[in-house]
Structures are given as structure tokens and as C-alpha cells.
Please model this.
Amino acid sequence: MAQVKGGELIFVQGSNPPSLDGMSTSSQASRNINMNIYETLYGFSEDIKPIPILAEGVEISDDGLTYVFTLRQGVMFHNGDEMNSADVKASLERYRIVGATKNLLAPVKDIEITGDYEVTFHMEEATPTFLEAFSSPRAPAVIIPEEDGDAEAGKNSFVGTGPYKFVEYVPDSHVTIERFEDYSADTRSDGIDGFGGHKTAWLDKVTFRIIPEPGAQVAALEAGEVHILEQIPMPAARRLEDDPDIKLYENLRWAFTTFIFNLNVPPSDNVKFREAVQVALNMEAIMAISSEGLYTLNHRWQYEDTAYDPGQIGAEYYNQADAERAKALLDEAGYNGEEFVILTDPNIPQHGRAAVVIAEQLNAIGINAVINQVDWPTALNIRMQDEGWNGWTLQMGIEPYLGPVGLIATLASPARPHFVVPDAGLDALYQELIKGATVEERLETFKKIQAHLYEIFAIIKVGDSGLMHAARSNVKGFIPFRFPRVYDVWLEG
Model:
């Protein structure tokens, strides 16, 4: 294809990025922008395997206690300085303090500068899954200039090594980035590969415009005022699928739709009650409505046909819609009509739609289900409390993508953010998982984790939901991924 250099692309998302400090936030709204500005030593390839990005590679000692990272030379920061080992050490020491997933560096005892372009990690103990965790984009361990190493969270200079550099942020309006002319492309690849590979900034400028209302987003796209929508509602997508000026992109396996119990209060503190909810739910109805039709039924806590697919374990509990069995379990639980409060929000549309269908289905079997819909920040605050809610609808996006370690880390102590109450069995299995020497060993442990989750019924897997992007037809080179890679994208005509 004949790429075209120049022009400004306008990408639309629904909410403000809470921070443009690449390491201090796990927000998708921030990651959309930040991963075009910053880079990491290692990141995931297209097939979710760790690959070097700013590193030339890593040498791991036989005992797993030493990781020697060699850095690429000639990599420039947006401020004109060349990246070296002092920048890397300062970045990662800052990440230990402000990183939103700073526990990913917990296995590292210390970081030593062993050359101008070499850093050595000394590990607390052998952790075979460390490189997978270190490659996580959830709140990535981005590399920034040494002088930003002491900056408080959100107060760095927004300088990275990526193909685009920060220009301005006007909250509730836009974020602008522009091509970094001195970008050091990774010539080891022919093209982009996941978060790494050979990146080329064809566009002069990219503006991330904030438009909260989906209808207004679609109208702007149809009018040609913007180029790409992060998410188009499925009804609008179906209406526009034959429009020659619009191109639709399915981003499947985008998130797990889940329903999380509060095990601290009745009636959700009773395992038989939770089992009753599990077998009562018609997952197909919930997914069809909440995702507006872009979904896959899947009981697994990993995506099907991936390296950690646990198979059919727990399938007998999934999508049962068995009212009689559920009522018998409620009797066994001694349920007596207590209120069951479902916490949800309208900011992520799938949350609110799923809550409505779940409540209807639970009311039909005699559970006194009520919905408490609040805005997203309030929902996050309430779900951290021991009381005031019983169930919570949540799209888990980045965690399933990270694989079993990244997913279960959010459920197991000490990182558990009130997803599940302390469970010794799950915690022990998580420790076994991260110490598994091979993928095969870790898969066997994950099968045990899957079985355990279908024993405690602390979190319900509803299904896999996708995301539909939409773009003007003159946008070329766009490939759906975990964030909008606006490099290797150009405008035609």
C-alpha cells in the first residue's frame, strides 16, 4: 500500500483520560493516548507473548534470580536526550511508588545499573511468570527521562520515546499529540507487532476528542467531522454497515462480562445463595442485550483456544437458566426475601443493561433484587465498602487479556480490590500459578483455579463481549487492538 504522510486524524472517545502519566493509571481512556506516547522495555506481541521493545533482549540466569536487560541504543526521548540505563532505573524506581500495578515489580529485590545500556534485576526468588507480568499494558512500566524519576503521580512532563509526542490536554475537549520526527523505529520487525514492532508515524497530528454522548459521536462521524470512533453502538453499526463512507471493525474478545458478589453481607455471603444465582441466570439473554449482539457465550475464565484454555471445567453451571434448581438452592440457603442490591452505572452501557436483565431474571425466581445505578466513580467507591451492595456488574477488559496471572492477581490477596473476600484456597492456587515453571504446569494450575471459582461462586462469568469500532473509509492501516495504534495509520484523499 502507498502510505501517505501528513494530515490530522481525529479519534473520538467518550471520557477524559484521568491522567497522561503513563505508569500511574490503568484507565482505558488514558491508555488509548499514552501507548502512542510512551514505550516499555518489554510488551506483548500480537499473540500476547512478551517481546522486547526498548530492550534488545534479556538474559535470565539458570536459577531465575538475575535478569540482565540490554537496551537499544540511539533511542531518543521527546526532549532530545538519548535513553540510557539511568533513565530506565529511575523510571522503574518511580513505578514502585506511583505505578498503578506496582506489584508487578514485587519479585524484584533491586535494580542495578551494570552498563550505560544495561540494567540488571536481582530477584527476591525465581518467578517464572515475571516477564509476562512485566509486559503488562494495564498500567505499563513506561520508560521516562531520569529527571522525571522523582515526579509525583500525574506530575511528570509527559515525555516518552514513542512515535508521537504530547502537545496539549484540554479536559472535556481534547488531547493533541504530534509526530516525533526523531523517533527511533525498531528495525527488527517489518511492521507493528502488538505493543511493539516497527512503528511509523505517518500523521502530522492526532487529536483525541472527548464526546460523551454516543449519538453525537455517530453524527460527527457521518458528517465527516471525525475519523474514528472508539466504540459505535451496535444499532448504529447495523444501520451504517452498507455505507461506503464508513468502515466497521469488530474487536472481538474485548472483555469479560462479569457479576461480582459482596461476600461480606447477607444474602450474598451464603454460598448456596450464590450458587442459586449462578444456575438461575440465562447468560445468552444477558449477553445479547448488554452487548447489543456482539458477544460469545463462554464459561471459561480465559478465552477459548488460547494457551491457558481450561476446557469444560465448570460448564455444567453455565447458562443453565434452571429456575427449579435455583429455587431449591434458595431454600437450602434459607433465603427469606432479603433485599439483594445490584450496583451498576450508566457510564459503561454494558454495566447498566446487564444489571437490568440480571435483576429481572432473579426477581422471576423469588429474589428481591433491586438496582442501585450511580455514576462510575460513585460505583467504584461503593464497591470498596463492606456494606451497601450485594452484586456488581463489571466489564473486565484488560485483565483477561493479560492471561491467568494478570486476571487472578486481581482476585487474590494482597491485590484483591474487593472483588472476592480473602479465600485461602484461591490465594494458595495463585502462588502455585506464578511459580509454575512452564506454560503446561501453569495450565494445570489454572484448571484447578477454574474449578475452585465454580465452587465458591464469588464471581460469575457471564460471557465474552466485543467492541465495534467505526471509521471513515479514507482511514487506512487501522488494525483493532487493545488501544488505538494511531501510528501506521494514514489518511487517503
